[in-house]
Amino acid sequence: MNSRSLLHSSVSRRLLRPVADLIDQRIERQVRSAVRRTGVRAAPAAQDTERLVRDVEALRHRQLTFELLLGPGGRGISRMVGEASLEHLYAEVAALSGDRGAAERNVAAAFRLLVALESLGVGRIAGGTMNICGKLGTIPLLDPPNDEILEIGTLYGMFSAGLVRMMERDGRSPSLTIVDPFAGVQLQPGTDQRADPTGSPVDERAVRTNLALAGPAGAAARIRHGFSEDPETRAAVSDRGYGVIVVDGDHSAKGVAQDLEWAEEIAAPGAIVVLDDYGDPGWPGIKDALDEHLKGQTRFTFLGKAARSAFLRAA
């Protein structure tokens, strides 16, 4: 494979296009210089060609490093960021928060936190990169009325660890409650039960390990085993009004409807309710359930969405 075809492969275009363009420009400058000197379109000198080959090899090594850090290996999804997707997320978070500068700052911080948590933790954070950064970046900017957080469905607890850290970055003192069945695998009605792409079991030990990465607030989290629709589970954690409720459990229309009805009861005045995977074509029941819920009597006002998460405000 010659240097130009290597630099314009699908992976290199995504990661290294600016650098590849610079090398192409260097070659073109050498060719133009040779034409001016001799009047003949000649190939670059052998030593220049060798230097370009070395540069390409160095770029390949850097590419492999980026792939190991941000690629899909070991988690099933890439954490690479595209310019258009990032700009779109900035705009969505800014529309929700009313502050473009704060939106860019929080999304950037959320991305760094995502990479750090998945590098150090057990398992992964479920969801696409923009979806995760959108939730982590937006929630603190919506100024929840208190620091009580409830997450319905946690997988490995890594998102909650990130949310604790993002709230603390905003000067808050988060207190976290998690509800999850901890079935050993990720459960969703209508889907096959299969091992997680990380190879790690979904259990409370993994969650506790990841929450410890968030410091004292993460280590102090209250965890309740069970499904969110179980009366015993609800009774155990309905002892307070939550300033933030993240609904990310059963993705069926029935399951989401039940979680929204419960959220109506336990959301503090002014609370932020986040409905994950809203508008995702793979989970049509989520949007159907929210749209139907908002048609009836409700405390919730739809604020908008960011990267397939819906944000609501409780009256």
The gist of it:
This protein has 315 residues and is α/β, with parallel strands linked by helices. The protein contains 12 helices and 7 strands. Helix 2 (10-38) packs antiparallel against helix 3 (46-70), helix 4 runs parallel beside helix 6 and helix 5 (100-120) crosses helix 7.
Q: How would you characterize the overall build of this protein?
A:
With 315 residues, the chain is α/β, with parallel strands linked by helices. 53% of the residues lie in helices and 14% in strands. A seven-stranded mixed beta sheet has the order 3-2-1-4-5-7-6, with helices on both faces. The protein starts with a helix and ends with a strand.
Counting H and I runs of at least 4 residues, what is the number of helices? 12
Mean pLDDT: 87
What is the percent of helical residues? 40-55%
Radius of gyration: 24 Å
Main β-sheet description: 7 strands, mixed
Outline the low-pLDDT stretches: 1-9
Total strand segments: 7
Fraction of residues in β-strands: 5-15%
Secondary-structure element series: HHHHHHEHEHHEHEHEHEE
Record the SSE blueprint:
Layout: H1 3-7, H2 10-38, H3 46-70, H4 83-97, H5 100-120, H6 129-141, E1 148-152, H7 158-169, E2 175-180, H8 204-212, H9 216-219, E3 222-225, H10 231-237, E4 242-247, H11 253-266, E5 267-276, H12 284-295, E6 300-305, E7 309-314
Parallel strand pairs: 1-2, 1-4, 2-3, 4-5
Antiparallel strand pairs: 5-7, 6-7
Helix pairs in contact: 2-3, 4-5, 4-6, 5-6, 5-7, 6-7, 11-12
